[in-house]
Design a protein that fits this description.
This protein has 215 residues and is α/β, with parallel strands linked by helices. The chain has five helices and eleven strands; from the N terminus they run βαβββββαββββααβα. The longest helix is centred in the middle third of the chain and has 17 residues. It starts with a strand and ends with a helix.
């Protein structure tokens, strides 16, 4: 079984959000197969279904309310965002999210970062610091939205919100943990390799224009 892998580089959140919804619709109609989008976003805050007003401060960057679960979070340059658009063979959203956590735990392990899950808190943790956030939406058993892994992220932007309802200082990045900038291409390679292993798929890279034509 294969999945189309598309690396969009850096794109605004709104543009990719609309693209996701188009691909979800095409997947539901059987016009395309499963897709994994990798992207870095311009500075943006997205608000999940559980966002509480008290978790927002005065925001000076674009903000959008989206369909995924979870609370408010920040996306920006240096953060690897992954959007798996997949038809679930088994309708088990909890298992899907645990599998995404496993992908990221294994991927950052390749950089000598010993990450883990934390009971009661979706995402990937190193000690008491949160390294990656996960929030998905499902329609017709097709997943979209996904994960955000802080690689070389400017953590100062998390101070604008209470990310996932947490103290902003809870957030960390691979760069902060390793005390040096991390090669994003290497991180992408490890994420794709472990995604293929955990989900038992072959990732086949396709150009962005092919993806847009399918949508």
């Amino acid at each position: 079984m294969s999945i189309s892998l598309v690396d969009l580089g850096r794109k605004p959140n709104l543009e990719v959000w609309e693209l996701q919804k188009s691909i979800v619709d095409a997947r539901a109609k059987g016009k395309t197969g499963d897709t994994l989008i990798l992207v870095e976003h311009d500075h943006v805050v997205t608000l999940g279904r559980k966002t509480s007003p008290e978790n927002l401060k005065a925001l000076d960057i674009p903000t959008f309310r989206v369909e995924r679960g979870g609370d408010a979070t920040y996306h920006g340059p240096g953060q690897l965002v992954g959007y798996p658009i997949m038809k679930m063979d088994v309708p088990d959203v909890r298992r899907f999210m645990r599998d995404l956590e496993e992908v990221l735990i294994l991927a950052v392990g390749s950089f000598s970062i010993h990450a883990r899950r934390k009971e009661g808190h979706t995402g990937v943790w190193v000690g008491e610091k949160k390294l990656a956030s996960i929030g998905v939406a499902v329609t017709n058993w097709i997943t979209y939205h996904g994960f955000a892994l802080n690689v070389n992220t400017d953590l100062g932007y998390f101070q604008k919100i209470k990310p996932c309802g947490l103290d902003p200082d809870t957030m960390t990045s691979m760069q902060a943990l390793l005390e040096s900038e991390v090669d994003m291409k290497s991180v992408k390679r490890e994420v794709v390799r472990n995604f293929s292993s955990v989900f038992k798929v072959e990732a086949v890279e396709v150009p962005p224009e092919v993806l847009r034509n399918r949508a």
